Amino acid sequence: MIFDHEANVVGQHQVEHRQIMPEAGWVEHDASEIWERTQEVIVAALKQADILGSDLAAIGITNQRETTVAWDVTTGLPIYNAIVWQDTRTTEILATLCEQEQATIRFKTGLTIAPYFSGSKMKWLLDNVPETRSSNARFGTIDSWLLWNLTGGVRGGVHATDVTNASRTLLMNLETLDWDDELLNIFGIARSSLPAIKSSSQIFGLTDPHGPFGTSVPIAGILGDQQAAMVGQVCFERGESKTTYGTGNFALLNTGTEIVRSKNGLLTTVCFKFGDEAARYALEGSVAVTGSAIQWLRDQLGVISHASETENLASSVADTAGVYFVPAFSGLFAPYWRGDARGAIVGLTRAATKAHLARAALEAICYQTRDVMDAMVADSGVPMSEMRVDGGITANSLCMQMQADIMGVEISKPLIAETTALGAAYAAGLAIGFWSSQDEVRRQWRQSRRWSPHSSLEQRESGYRQWKKAVDRTLNWID
């Protein structure tokens, strides 16, 4: 996406890439395909905007944070498929950690012990793919992989990441904002194989003139996708929050310069760091499966042909007829953190139709979000009256109305729904003075739509009690 000074979109292009699932619980991406398609969308977006790479002031990168790549710096090729954040193959590795190691990891990183994060993915690669143990091997998240390629790759690419992505690896100390030797030793990872950790808003390097931009442009911003959405939603101050609806669902609450350690199943993470300013931290609640539940209806069940059909199908019935769908395909994330949970559809009768299932899938997105936001209120002590939302599912008006009704709060959507891309642009623009200050950026935020709750307290709580019963089924399915 290409933005002008007023944050208007002047060019964009997007393409899907493959989801590779070689075994149950395994999810992979082809990192070479991601790089190829990145080049494709760059060229197409420039063409649509009718500009050249030399017309750009700066470039920001944002990415799915925990997805892990290993590549060879001499060949420029991935050593193995990227292991995606949803992948659960490392559950057994984490189960071998002793209580002291687990406590150390939790305290130093602010994260829970889960296969979601990058550190155990790197250890799995080291244990199972001999080439990753070579001195030529490098590890990184997708931002590092793209930065290295954009800045020249084998011709001298920059190997770096930012604090938000590094904070999702189980390897970075939240207080020092650097790789931690004790954590590296626990997972057996060499510091030399990892990228340098930088702030979220600074010049990382210049693009290779031989690459898709055709010139040297400063890459000046890198943020993990959820933190980028916080910046895109201008949640710069303590107490401000947003929820992004994508493949998964992610809510963040800005806690300022304070590291707040959750007592209710949330994660503590870096929110952003601009240049030499102090890092800002956040509480985060992560839901593994939201938008990907709609993909499942489309790709695995054939209930719909296109994701856009979900709203009309779900609107054709007044309710779910008592059907509840818990899409725990990769276990359950916050606030449960149960990797052994499995998906369930409960309350089925002979009268249930695909429309009821589609509506239950939308409700599942909203109930999972409520689980997270209730935990966030409990940790922060700040009652919630409004929630800012962004991401693809916010185009589904029925789902957003359900969200307002299930939570009993106002839901506010910005004019630019793809705030993840906008946040990366803001970080890059602030680094080079394209925007003069955070206040200038804040003034650009505009609302496009608002949903108010229509439900009664009794309706909300009755539905939520039934949801919790359905969740219990997924947690106790083995018994």
Automatic annotation (TrEMBL):
Keyword Zinc carried by entry: no
Domain Carbohydrate kinase FGGY N-terminal intervals: 2-232
SUPFAM superfamilies, per database record: Actin-like ATPase domain (SSF53067)
Enzyme kind, highest EC tier: transferase
Pathways involved: Polyol metabolism; glycerol degradation via glycerol kinase pathway; sn-glycerol 3-phosphate from glycerol: step 1/1
A single GO BP: glycerol catabolic process
Protein name: glycerol kinase
